[in-house]
Design goal:
Elements lengths: L1 E3 L6 H7 L1 H10 L2 E5 L5 H12 L20 E2 L9 E4 L7 E12 L3 E2 L2 E5 H7 L2 H10 L1 E8 L6 H5 L4 H8 L5 E6 L2 E8 L2 E4 L4 E4 L3 H4 L6 H8 L9 E5 L7 H13 L1 E4 L6 E5 L3 E5 L2 E2 L3 E11 H5 L5
Helix pairs in contact: 1-3
Amino acid sequence: MHITSPSREPLAPWIRQHRDRIDEALWTDGHVLFRDFDVGGLDGFEASAASACDALYRHYGDLPLASASDNVYFATPYPKHLEIRFHNEASHTQTWPSRQLFFCLEPASEGGEWTLSDGRQVVERLPAEMLERFRELGLVYRRRFIRGLDASWEQFFQVASLQELREKIAPTGHEIDAASENDLTVSYRTHALLRIPERGSEAWFNQILLHHPDALPTQVDAMLSKHFRRDQYPRTVFFGDGSPIPAAWVRTIDRVLTECAIHIPTQAHDVLLVNNLLMAHGRLPYSGNRQVRVALGDMREHAAVATGEPA
């Protein structure tokens, strides 16, 4: 759904007034784009996010903070000439936002469109044998935290010591292999698809295209291969039993997600609200400057959803 304000109404109160309509659109269309509203800068964006969510999330370690309130983040710091592949935010962890908001402060001079792909359509189009294998085995993500590459494990898990990390994530089923504090691998087994209790439906829900080596851009794969074996890249993903996901399957997943995709060109002050349970998101390459901020809300947990209980 795309909503335009001819009179530049303040966005936060408009969302509060029309929350029921917005909530339903998130289940039917999977997203709502607000255009030509008076957002009110970063403070107004945070207020708008708070109006669209029951609770904002302020402990997300995968994105750098962009405000003193801890509720607004910078978008993923990724090279502008590369595409950010489709993924559901934080689906590789135990908890994830059910809603995510993007605020365009400055659009790119060329490119940089938001991309969305409906996980319900993806499930309908992927081969049945693939879906059954993913349902049966799930996924295991292995993230290797090497000092100086990507976010640190302290930032990602919001801890100050290795002992604190062990105490925090041991109950969640994470496994830690610590060669040293500068080279630490964390593995987590979880789902590849998600049951949606509210709607009795199922959606493709993972980060295979962000973690699998065969989904990497050629130049990134070539650079990493000079330093690591492919099964020891900083981010990798396998079937839940540790067996490899075939490269041909990754190409099929990429093709189907692309077939189910929509592109949303960005304008200054656009706010995009996404149902993260249903929609994978990404970003096309761009040139020039592009400034986007992010907010997350209404968290869910793997254990609660896995048992069919709303979180």
